[in-house]
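Dear colleagues,

For the upcoming journal club I promised to circulate an example of a predicted protein-ligand complex. I picked one with 2-acetamido-2-deoxy-beta-D-glucopyranose because it came up in last month's discussion. The inputs are reproduced below in full, followed by the predicted structure.
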Amino acid sequence: MKSLVLSLVWLLNVYPTFAAIASISDIPLKSNLPTVSNKFIIEVDEAANIPPSKRFTESLSVHDLVFENLKTRDVNLNITKRYNVKGVFVGAAITLDNPQDVAAIRQVPGVKDIRPVQKFNIPKPVFKHVVTGPDDPAIPPDSESTHIMTGVDKLHAEGITGEGIKIGILDTGVDYNHPSLGGGFGPGFKFVGGFDFVGDDYDGTNAPIPDDDPLDICAGHGSHVSGIVGADPGNEFGISGVAYDATFSMYRVFGCVGFVTDDVLVEALLMGFQDGQDILTLSLGGPDGWTESSSSVVASRLVEQGMVVTISAGNDGASGSWYTSSPGNGINVISVASVDNTVVPLQNATVGGIQHDPITYFNTFPLPINTTLPIFATSNSTTVVDDACAPLPNSTPDLSDKVVVIRRGTCTFVEKLTNAAEKGAQVVLIYDNGSGFAGIDVGDFIATLIQSADGEFLVQQFAAGVPVTLTFPQTGGSTDFPDPNGGLVSSFTSFGPTNDFFFKPAIAAPGGSILSTLPNGTFGVESGTSMAAPFAAGSVALIFQSRGKNADTAKGVRSLLESTGQRIGSSKTDGDPLQTVTQQGGGLVNVFNAVHAETVVTPAELIVNDTAHAVPEQKFTVQNTGKSSKEYTLSHIPAGTALTIQAGTILPENGPVPLSSSPATVSINPSTFTLEPGASQTVTATISGPTGLDDTTFPVYSGFIEISDGDQSFHVTYLGLIGSLIDKQVIDDTDFFFGIPLPFIFNSTGAVQEGPANYTFAGDDFPIFVWRQAFGSPRVTVDLVNPDIQIDATLNARAVDDNKKPFISFPTPHTSGTYGQVQTIGSMLEFNFLGRNNENPADNGANAFSITTPTFANGTIIPNGSYRLLLRALRVTGDATKEEDTEAFLSEIIGINA
Ligand SMILES: *[C@@H]1O[C@H](CO)[C@@H](O)[C@H](O)[C@H]1NC(C)=O
Ligand SMILES: *[C@@H]1O[C@H](CO)[C@@H](O)[C@H](O)[C@H]1NC(C)=O
Ligand SMILES: *[C@@H]1O[C@H](CO)[C@@H](O)[C@H](O)[C@H]1NC(C)=O
Ligand SMILES: *[C@@H]1O[C@H](CO)[C@@H](O)[C@H](O)[C@H]1NC(C)=O
Ligand SMILES: *[C@@H]1O[C@H](CO)[C@@H](O)[C@H](O)[C@H]1NC(C)=O
Ligand SMILES: *[C@@H]1O[C@H](CO)[C@@H](O)[C@H](O)[C@H]1NC(C)=O
Ligand SMILES: *[C@@H]1O[C@H](CO)[C@@H](O)[C@H](O)[C@H]1NC(C)=O
Ligand SMILES: *[C@@H]1O[C@H](CO)[C@@H](O)[C@H](O)[C@H]1NC(C)=O
Ligand SMILES: *[C@@H]1O[C@H](CO)[C@@H](O)[C@H](O)[C@H]1NC(C)=O
């Protein structure tokens, strides 16, 4: 089902030991930087610097005053959008002539902040299938299983269905004409309002064409999301939304394809607020690892105003820790992880030639084989480790009319399948060599995975000469297989924490294999944290309806969901630790328990932070909101400690992030107490991380403190780091990714520059600067400097003498110098809060900066001459005024010969 993600994890785990991950040809020749150049969002202070006499004159806006001020400083800018929601966000989206003016703008009185404009791709589900009808084998057999996992079914039975709650959805739009989504638009329908900020043709690069109709029949994503929270029951598929009697509005922020930029998201978030939505839900975002993007900040502000905002945590689980998504990174928003559905629809093959039960294979649809075929095993041993990894022997018969059976192990599935295909094989079953059972990457071959016991049975029969055959029924072969990962966190869920050590994701909700509505009256199964966020939004609606909709409930709702969450294991094997809190948050929502909770625990997140900033002593309050006295017992339940970095390297571990079961030590005081109705008790938890772990792995420890009253149980969730982020190297200077040491400059024919080189900037003759970040950085700059620059020793002068090799310096503690004192000729690039790269060359493997024209960042022509590029990155928690907190790299000499 999730073959995409699983195969990626698998590839990444196998290849690095043999060869580099990527080649130069994987790097785009066009810059692939994550922000829109020259576009920024500024925030202005609502009251500052406005003369009191003018403060209340309607005609004079804060904007005008600030912009007048900017003009007097020779800053050239155009305003593309104004934001004016007092108490939440007052500011503007601007384009600058000169990005170097960012520093000047920051100094202008009345300017609170200036942030880059990020891009967010149109959400793509991890898995998507449009079903053909109620009998489609892809439909999860029990369509309401997600409601049963979370207690939603019991609340529906109590008549709690979200009535009176207003939910706004930011997505691709919705096909509100779908019979299960109300069949119309406007007052009286399910979708009463909303807005289209962009229009069908918007792709992120062109001008949006807004209108007030958020209809979408092209992208479809928003219709699926809408059905999860709001589909009416009574359809032929037996599904219903979590809060189907709520009132909905759709804010369309994507066209049919492409991406959306922060400036549009901020506008949509603010409109949702002004429209008085109780809940906003966003199934979108992109990894940046920081809480600071404009849309993250605005989403977080809305929560301070008493709204609830649920946002998907991201589908980047394969990329490992420290890779959370914005705007879900917003400090106060509820970032939602995905849990796999408990059942998965698979297919059975029938066995002939011997009496035996059918064999289940990991496909949603039958393999397209309509004849009965004999089996052939490539090895008669059921313990062979490298079955079919080498070309099959000459004695192998023609395999075209056989079902070939191969054991998993050593080489890739596609290598095995290629070897079998050389002998004519057309259909292959690979049997697992352990207890695995999941979707696998088979390329274009007709092949699938079966369980080890079934494979061993087939091979034993073959070796014994029994003429076993297999048939793949084209109808009637579908079976309700209990999902081997059902109830576990979906492997695609992004791992936290953020680089500034905030708690992401907050909670988990069903998101793997979810059946919901699609445009044009259809239905489909999709997987992703996109499916989990609307589930959480619906859950909050049920809580609002039953516990009252007010600012207090709103502010407490994240704690309520977290403290009543169901803790999730890291696997189904006894003895394995609970999944790290950095992927499950407070656990799978249990809305029934949240609605009926008679104990309030605040806060529900205890953040110890890194060693340098550790707050080991944490306090929380337990309040009895019930009608009778309760006796509480508190205990520590550790979760797995995430080993986030590969031992002895600077590189993050890919997902699934390896876990250590070494627990933290937590002392709880008091650990038992009795509370009368209404009374509360403050508890102190003193948390110290596990000892004996390799601190080069930057272990993130986590777990729960359970609070039981003998009847109901609650928990608070904690998170801490062994080690300090100031010690985490940011810039990748290894040869792991490309097989040559990073960073480097290459040219458009793919030659890596070694020694000085001249560029004419005619045609394709220009340099491309490539760097990777093994970790996020609060500030990254690329400047042009004199080739024989005499820089402070911490930026090592050796580089100047040695033209052969790029030199990277990671200075040891040092006392003098600042980020700003280095003599530079001009700025080429500048980022605040840049996230790290991942190991997927097709996705976010490296940052490429193509210098196609010899211009500074501000567009001014660089005079012909010799230069170097100076890349600097501030470490997380570093001080920009301290040189030792900044990593620096000096490039080869580039001659500009335009
Ligand atoms: C501002 O708009 C004017 C007129 O459209 C245009 O000429 C100018 O280049 C723009 N400046 C910026 C900084 O975008
Ligand atoms: C829905 O129908 C319209 C009109 O026939 C078609 O253009 C569109 O592609 C369909 N949408 C989807 C998602 O199939
Ligand atoms: C599919 O095969 C499994 C394993 O033999 C069996 O338990 C199950 O009943 C079969 N399902 C159907 C629908 O035949
Ligand atoms: C069997 O499958 C083949 C290839 O897909 C197809 O050409 C043939 O018509 C099918 N035969 C039957 C009886 O369905
Ligand atoms: C496996 O067993 C079958 C049946 O006994 C036999 O024909 C075949 O040669 C054996 N294969 C090998 C590689 O020994
Ligand atoms: C962790 O400590 C750093 C450094 O003081 C700080 O910037 C950050 O906000 C802290 N994180 C949390 C969640 O408190
Ligand atoms: C680059 O051009 C300069 C000026 O024309 C010349 O002196 C120098 O030798 C050239 N360098 C290389 C590596 O070609
Ligand atoms: C790139 O560099 C190589 C090696 O110096 C050179 O042969 C090639 O012509 C260069 N390509 C371009 C487009 O300048
Ligand atoms: C652009 O930047 C360069 C290098 O810092 C500087 O010399 C030049 O004056 C700037 N141009 C403008 C128009 O600000």
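Two points we might discuss: The first strand starts at residue 35 and ends at 44. The CA atoms of residues 570 and 579 lie 4 Å apart.

See you all on Thursday,
B. R.
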